[in-house]
Amino acid sequence: MHAPAYFDRMLAVLAYIDAHLDGDLRVETLGAVAAFSKHHFHRQFCALFGIGVHKYVRLCRLKRASFQLAFRRTTPVIEIALAAGYDAPEAFARAFRKSFGQSPSEFREQPHWEPWHAAFQPLRQLRIDHMTPDHQAAPVRIVAVDDIHVALLAHRGDPQRIGDTVRSFIAWRRQHRLPPAVSATFNILHDDPQQVAPHDFRLDLCAAFDGEVADNPYGVTGAVIPGGRCAVLRHVGSDETLGETIRYLYAEWLPHSGEALRDFPVYVQRLRFFPDVPEHEAVSDVFLPLRQPDYENGMSR
């Protein structure tokens, strides 16, 4: 078997796990997905991805469960526990506390993000190394965008603490009955977290909103994402690989495009959200603001 075919079969296992977190994910089942012998599949998975298949499945299920606890606060804990593969809330609570140092109810009330990020570092690295998006399958489009009036909540500081800002923004949206199905969701990405110190990191959470934003305890304000020409590239998959999609736009598409950048940061429209959909099926459109073309000299201005 050629290496690309072998690798594709193992990637199919990762996609299957994402799509069936509440289903049968025994080694026998996953080995059959890859069409490999159950006697060797566990060793093959670990040798290729650097993590045991049982640990990988557990981390994937706990990641979805933690997102549901932190950001989908109306979902009952027992429902989350069962979907994560635990027969009883007590077993789920023990596993959760062992991984993150908090019970599920404590995490729902006030997550401790540092141990959470540490626990999921192996999962994050695997996705960065092996689940990068295929940009040839989704070509870059150039579109004209109108001004977008938004309600905005600024996150400033350590990107590992962004979960707290997300929780505050969700609370504001819930109060104003503005779920993503009603009000489009955007993120303005001022900084690359890999290129700035944690205390310098800036990101804005936005929801389309035409009205006046009243004073509120969350710090949400009114703002405008300015209209204009944008290059748009669809990102499908985990946020862990979103940086690769942005890098592709800047480093590979832009130099060959003949375009010049407008003075506004790259931003993202969130279309399908994890944990509401499997992580590999989450969808975001990345917008790279461009100058208007100068037709007299063939340059963008």
Class derived from helix and strand content: alpha+beta
Instruction: Tally the beta strands.
Output: 10
Determine the number of helices (DSSP H or I, runs of at least 4 residues): 11
Q: Ranges with pLDDT <50 over ≥5 residues?
A: none
Inertia-based shape: globular
Instruction: State the end-to-end CA separation.
Output: 52 Å
What is the N-to-C succession of helices and strands? HHHHHHHHHEEHEEEEHEEEE
What order do the strands of the largest sheet run in, or round the barrel if closed?
A: 1-6-8-7-3-4-2-5
Mean pLDDT: 92
What radius of gyration results from the CA coordinates? Answer: 21 Å
Quaternary arrangement of the chains shown?
A: single chain
- What level of helicity do the residues show? 40-55%
Q: Mind summarizing the main beta sheet?
A: 8 strands, antiparallel
Beta-strand portion reads 15-25%
Q: Explain this structure to me?
A:
The structure is a single chain. The chain has helices at 3-19, 27-34, 38-49, 53-71, 77-83, 89-100, 104-109, 113-119, 121-130, 162-175, 242-253, and strands at residues 141-145, 148-156, 185-189, 202-208, 221-225, 228-236, 267-272, 283-290, 293-294, 299-300. The chain is built from eleven helices and ten strands. It starts with a helix and ends with a strand. The longest helix has 19 residues, at 53-71. 41% of the residues lie in helices and 19% in strands. The chain has 301 residues and is an alpha+beta fold. A hairpin with a 4-residue loop joins strand 9 (293-294) and strand 10. Helix 1 packs across helix 2. It is globular and about 65 Å long. The strands form two sheets. Strands 1-6-8-7-3-4-2-5 form an eight-stranded antiparallel β-sheet, with helices on one face.
